[in-house]
Structure of glutathione transferase:
Amino acid sequence: MTKPIQVWMAPPGPNPWKVVVILEELQVPYEIKSIRFENIKKKPFTDLNPNGRVPAIVDPNADDLVVWESGAIITYLCEQYDPEKTLSGRSVSERAHLNQWLYFQASGQGPYFGQAGWFNNHHPEKLPSAMERYNKEVHRVLGVLEGCLEGKQWLVGDRLTFVDIAFAPWNDRLEDVTKCAPGDGFKGFPNVQAWHERVTARPAWKKSMETKERLMDEQDLTLVGLPKGMKSLQEWEKQIKEQDEAASK
């Protein structure tokens, strides 16, 4: 009997939800270890991931193997828990192309979307040049996807794979990331929008997002990940610092 895989996460970020959706698609049992933002760079989590970034998993079916970095986790889960190749490559070329897109997601989409989100939402000073640069990079990445999805429903082959899922959580944050008008996130990228809607219409995605909403409510967080009532990340970090200093006295 497969024991539940522990998924350590902080619920606001996109990256943990790649892992959760894939576990849902593969019907692999799991349990979420939800931690607060202020505890990501503290023990016990840094005993699992010294880089202090979520997600990380602990697999009790493999002598409590710990894996961090979402791309590495995805690869591991598909190697160990997808024997029927439901989401994985079924040929040499498919496997190569899946890895190609996974690396592009991890090195292209994630960092550029994240930087756009930072400068548009959280940087203490408004830096128009940085905002413009990273918004352009977001659109450049979307343009790559738009062209490669022309005449196709999925990135690799004729079926959903793990790379389609890997792109979905960041694409789902487009409006927040770029601070565009509501409904304009995919403007100019109809192939990407249709592809994203195919992924997010799946039961695994919907169930995962219901879990996310519940965890966000439990931590009293807003859609952008800040505690309700907080006006900025800096205000929150100041409060965390003051609490830590008071606790150490």
